[in-house]
Amino acid sequence: MSEPYSLKNYQPCESIGFLLKRAGSQLAMTVDRGLAPFDMTHAQLGIFLKLLHGQAKTAADLARELMADTGAMTRMLDRLEEKGFIQRIRSSADRRVIEVSLTTKGQQLGDQMTQVVVDTLNHHLRGFTETEVDQFKDFLRRMIGNA
C-alpha cells in the first residue's frame, strides 16, 4: 500500500492526528461533565482507574503508565489526596519509593466513576456495531504499535 498522506492530499482537518485529538477532547469533556458530582476530572480519573485495576502501585508507575512527568504526577496526586481519594505511603522496603493506593472513599466510588466512562464511551460509539468497535480498537492498537 502506498503511504496514505502526501503533500497533495493532506488536509489538516482530515488528518488522523487531528481527528484522534478532536475525538479524545470530546470524550474528555463528556467524562468531565459526568464526573463533576464526584469532584473528579478526566485527567485525575486516569490515575484513579490505574489504581482501581491494580495497574500501578507507585507514583513512578503512574507517571510511566500515563506518560506524565513526575512533577505533574505529584501535583495530581496532591489534589487526589486532598479530596480523600488516594493515600501515599513511603515504602518500608525502599524509602525513595512512594506507594499509592485508593482510600476507602476511592474504593467505594470506583464502580460509580467507572460507570461514567462506560456511559460516555457507549454514547460516543452510538451507531457502531460490535465488529466496528473491535476493528476500531485494533486500528488504534496497530497505530500505537507503529509508534
From TrEMBL:
<protein>
    <recommendedName>
        <fullName>HTH marR-type domain-containing protein</fullName>
    </recommendedName>
</protein>
<dbReference type="GO" id="GO:0003677">
    <property type="term" value="F:DNA binding"/>
</dbReference>
<keyword id="KW-0804">Transcription</keyword>
<dbReference type="InterPro" id="IPR036388">
    <property type="entry name" value="WH-like_DNA-bd_sf"/>
</dbReference>
<dbReference type="GO" id="GO:0003700">
    <property type="term" value="F:DNA-binding transcription factor activity"/>
</dbReference>
<feature type="domain" description="HTH marR-type">
    <location>
        <begin position="13"/>
        <end position="145"/>
    </location>
</feature>
<dbReference type="Pfam" id="PF01047">
    <property type="entry name" value="MarR"/>
</dbReference>
<dbReference type="InterPro" id="IPR036390">
    <property type="entry name" value="WH_DNA-bd_sf"/>
</dbReference>
<keyword id="KW-0238">DNA-binding</keyword>
<dbReference type="InterPro" id="IPR023187">
    <property type="entry name" value="Tscrpt_reg_MarR-type_CS"/>
</dbReference>
<dbReference type="InterPro" id="IPR000835">
    <property type="entry name" value="HTH_MarR-typ"/>
</dbReference>
<keyword id="KW-0805">Transcription regulation</keyword>
